[in-house]
Amino acid sequence: MTAAEPVVRLAQRRDVPRLAATLAAAYPDYRWTSWAFPEDGRAQRVHRWHELVAGLAGVDAQTTWVTDDCAAVATWTPPGDPAPAADLQAVLDRDLPKVFGSRHRVVQATDRIAAAGRPETPHWWLVSAGTRPSQRFAGLSRAVVTPVLDRCDADGVPAALAAYTSGVVHWAEALGFVVTQSTRSAVDHELPVWTLVRPPRGA
């Protein structure tokens, strides 16, 4: 017998604390995390970033998917990168500079570098995906990204993401993503940055 497929659904506002905790715990040694966030209060900064982006913004836009127990999470930006509601944008504008502190400008500059490898046509952008460490290797990360990848195939639009370790590159390649750009972070050039694009299947 095969294991039952995990239940995957759109995240709701009540899920925000759990999904933020999952993403914050998913990559305790992820190189981007230690590069992007100041050491002072890093754990709290990382949790708040996921709470803002995957939680509040993703739930509001209906672009964050979770397993039913929030053990795995994936959050996306949809085609056209629509702006959040004005009240949410005000929260993001107020809190994101605080979250990144002295690293805010270099993170923004590196995001722009990664964006150079994104498709020029409308596409879905994978902002973050992760699984609780205790439930890794059960296909949960694949499960939570599949709804958008299936939608991309149905709509004939690509998906894209930025990766900062070769492990994430290999995971994405297994899902059909292809490296379109390989570079390094802005200013300090400390961090490798790959941009990957997945053409819609059947295109």
Task: Give a concise summary.
The chain contains seven helices and seven strands. It has 203 residues and is α+β, with helices and mostly antiparallel strands. It has a seven-stranded mixed β-sheet with strand order 1-2-3-4-5-7-6, sandwiched between helices.
Helix and strand topology:
Layout: E1 8-10, H1 16-26, H2 31-36, H3 42-61, E2 64-67, E3 72-77, H4 86-100, H5 104-115, E4 124-131, H6 140-155, E5 159-163, H7 166-174, E6 178-184, E7 192-198
Parallel strand pairs: 4-5
Antiparallel strand pairs: 1-2, 2-3, 3-4, 5-7, 6-7
Account of the 3D structure:
With 203 residues, the protein is an alpha+beta fold. It has a single domain, classed as Aminopeptidase, CATH 3.40.630.30. The chain contains 7 helices and 7 strands, in the order βαααββααβαβαββ. The protein has helices spanning 16-26, 31-36, 42-61, 86-100, 104-115, 140-155, 166-174, and strands at 8-10, 64-67, 72-77, 124-131, 159-163, 178-184, 192-198. A 7-stranded mixed beta sheet has the order 1-2-3-4-5-7-6, with helices on both faces.
